[in-house]
UniProtKB/TrEMBL annotation, chain B:
NDH-1 is composed of 14 different subunits. Subunits NuoA, H, J, K, L, M, N constitute the membrane sector of the complex. It is a multi-pass membrane protein. It comes from Calderihabitans maritimus. Pfam families: Oxidored_q2. Keywords: Cell membrane, Membrane, NAD, Quinone, Translocase, Transmembrane, Transmembrane helix, Transport, Ubiquinone. This is NADH-quinone oxidoreductase subunit K. GO terms for cellular component: NADH dehydrogenase complex; plasma membrane. It comes from the Bacteria. NDH-1 shuttles electrons from NADH, via FMN and iron-sulfur (Fe-S) centers, to quinones in the respiratory chain. The immediate electron acceptor for the enzyme in this species is believed to be a menaquinone. Couples the redox reaction to proton translocation (for every two electrons transferred, four hydrogen ions are translocated across the cytoplasmic membrane), and thus conserves the redox energy in a proton gradient. Belongs to the complex I subunit 4L family.
């Protein structure tokens, strides 16, 4: 029951993100979609990921996107999110991909595990991250640092020193 | 009974909506929103596989965290690039971004 409610929330607000004409409304519905995905994580017993989803997506990425809209606004905001000329062919590509993947999902027989996941997921995630995945963990840290420095330099604007 | 295919189809549907947004929108920020929807769909898939196929190992969760890290870095850099292009061309229409055409 909760799954179907969350699915309706996610799909409905995702369609609103794509179809609405006003890009600020799209950004707000994007936040609703992210909250719905966090609900799906709780349903899948991934409580830590649900918290990360709320913190990073709803708290940071959505705000960044709204800032992006604010800093690049031009013309009428009510017509700020139009389709381009590939609207029809993009719908066709998305539909064909969906039908293809759906056939594969429904045609596969999954060997499900009956093991019960531990109630607390933070500890096992930390152990996996700092033992098997320690090199990707450090790489992700460096990636975040480089992305932060790069974003600051790009957004400041590069000025030449020759003049 | 909600099972693994339900979550996978939800992820597929969300991915295709995001793909449609990324391909069919004219505003570059809207294209970024579509990409974020696609990354979220991938995360749903990863966590669902982790929950139903290997519930005692947390490989899917760790992967999802890395995807979230890369998504946050990507959106910051992409918005900086969009703001920089906007300063130069006074437009966020991706059809105006044609430096590489000849």
């Amino acid at each position: 029951m909760i799954f179907w409610l969350l699915t309706a929330l996610i799909i409905g607000s995702a369609l609103a993100v794509v179809l609405l004409k006003n890009i600020v409304h799209s950004a707000l519905y994007l936040m609703v979609t992210f909250v719905g995905v966090a609900g799906i994580y709780i349903l899948l017993e991934a409580d830590f990921l649900a918290a990360v989803q709320i913190l990073v997506y709803v708290g940071a990425v959505s705000i960044l996107l709204v800032f992006g809209v604010m800093l690049t606004r031009r013309g009428d905001i009510r017509e700020s999110n139009p389709f381009n000329r590939y609207k029809g062919i993009a719908a066709l590509v998305a539909l064909v991909l969906f039908l293809l993947v759906e056939r594969f999902i429904l045609g596969t027989s999954w060997t499900l595990s009956n093991a019960v996941p531990p109630a607390d997921t933070v500890g096992p995630i930390a152990e996996a991250m700092l033992s098997d995945f320690v090199v990707p963990f450090e790489a992700a840290a460096i990636l975040l640092l480089v992305a932060m420095v790069g974003a600051i330099i790009l957004a400041r604007g590069v000025t030449s020193r020759h003049d | 009974m909600i099972n693994l295919p339900h979550f996978l189809i939800l992820g597929t549907l969300l991915f295709c909506i995001g793909l449609y947004g990324a391909l069919a929108k004219r505003n570059a920020v809207a294209v970024l929103m579509g990409i974020e929807l696609m990354l979220n769909a991938v995360n749903i898939n990863l966590v669902a596989f982790s929950r139903y196929l290997k519930p005692t190992e947390f490989v899917g969760h760790v992967f999802a965290i890395f995807v979230i890290v890369v998504a946050a870095a990507e959106v910051a850099v992409a918005l900086a690039i969009i703001i920089n292009i906007y300063r130069d061309r006074l437009s966020t229409n991706i059809e105006d971004f044609d430096w590489l055409k000849w």
